[in-house]
Amino acid sequence: MGLDWNPGNKPLPGREAEAATLRAAILAEPSVETVGDAWTWHAIIAAAILALAAWGIGWFEHPVRSGFVLCTFYFLVGWPIYAWWRGLEPRAAVVYVTTGIWHPVAAYGLLGFVLVRRGWPLRLDPPTDPSMSLWLGWFAPNAIATFCAVLMALGVWAYGWRFFDPRRLRYSGERDALRARFFELSLAAYTTVGAPIVGHDASADAWILEVARRPRDGQVPTEEEVVAKVRSFAGYRVLALAPPSDGLPVYCNAILNPHLELVSFRAAFLNDCEDVIGADLLASARRPMSADKLVAYGNALLERVRAWAVAHGVSEMEHRRDPPDDLESPAGRAHIGFSAAKWCLYWGGRGHGLDPWA
Fold first, then answer.
1. Dist CA 37 CA 223 (whole Å)
2. Could you tell me which of 344, 316, 350 has the C-alpha nearest to residue 330?
3. DSSP code of residue 195
4. What is the pLDDT of residues 20-45, one digit of tens each?
5. pLDDT tens sequence across 112-146
6. Residue 346: C-alpha distances to residues 146, 262, 340, 353 (Å)
7. How much is the pTM?
8. Reduced 3-state DSSP string for 256-313
């Protein structure tokens, strides 16, 4: 299961209360990324179940029955598998599923109900089996309507009555405005690690100049293109040149994922360390935390890992930055645990919270 930790922004002095209120409001709104990710997996799971339903039952022969089987298996089989794979808590899982599926399912159920009730044909030839006539005429549309009602009831449980508020679906408006205001009242994590700045530090200027002069698609950039690129990076903080610290972990997925920075910690490694840190701390790794809670969590991690490392004779991993060759060994798992604890203490101690990214 993928999981990365990102340090949250640090509120400016005197603006802590307002920043905390804004952060809570942002977390309460579904994000474009979250819903987009859910829709991607919805499509994958639904396509697989649709193929099975079409093959086993005959989509064109009995569309209503196939649609009901598709929705039922999606909700009872496909979605629980996905929620388990992602490690979602029950409420989060319901938020995902109701956000991504109840609209098309409700539309399908309503359409099937109306068409059948009005006597419109839903198959190429009239049904000859009386039981199938009963299925198409009454049970299937009513079952789908019941399914939609249950789904909406779960949505109310997850969201409250805001589930029916159409403003909940406006992902790019109010949420972005809240985020913009929050960023005005806070400092990003990359300002904390002491990274050199392009236009202010010679090392950063040399770095961007070397990057700007690299050939692209076999073409050497002109001097004008080099100058334009260097100017566009003015004020950029070069994390790759920052001094080593616990806030720049060796376990980082930024090289493979363009959405992450070098300050992120690849917390997915903790999945192999459940016997080291305990199931409770592993479950908490997926929850957003304020700076104070992150410090407390880091201290709890450190205590657990220290006790485990002493019992397994690998206490020296606490003071080692580079990971051992075998990460599945006791030394490797202890090193992962120590690195996670020190990352939490570094960022929490400097006023940054935790924003998990799965």
1. 41
2. 316
3. -
4. 888 777 766 655 445 444 444 555 55
5. 555 555 554 444 344 444 444 444 444 444 555 55
6. 51, 14, 10, 10
7. 0.63
8. CCCCCCCCCECHHHHHHHHHHHCHHHHHHCCCCECHHHHHHHHHHHHHHHHHHHHHCC
